[in-house]
Amino acid sequence: xxxxxxxEKYVLPQILxxxxxxxESDAVLEIEEESxxxxxxxxxxxENYEVTVxxxxxxxxxxxxxxxxxxxxxxxxxxxxxxxxLYTSPSPRDRTR
Length: 97
Known about the structure:
Distance between the termini: 26 Å
Strand content: 25-35%
Order of helices and strands: HEEEEH
Number of helices: 2
Oligomer: single chain
């Protein structure tokens, strides 16, 4: 089961590093929880890419990015997972980077 707190185990190391770099450089331009557990984000890369993430509680049940990456989880999705982690933290104090 992939969760918001263990997803790193399911991502290739170089993709995880690139996604962390994207997140830390504020490449997640917009993120919104459109309905409970349904997140949509715009992530700046070569172009602006749309990422959607569906969660039930802390479990990540689906994700999609419109970038051309052929693998399972791309760097844009990693950056979005990290942003979701920030917004789903139980305490506002935990939301600082």
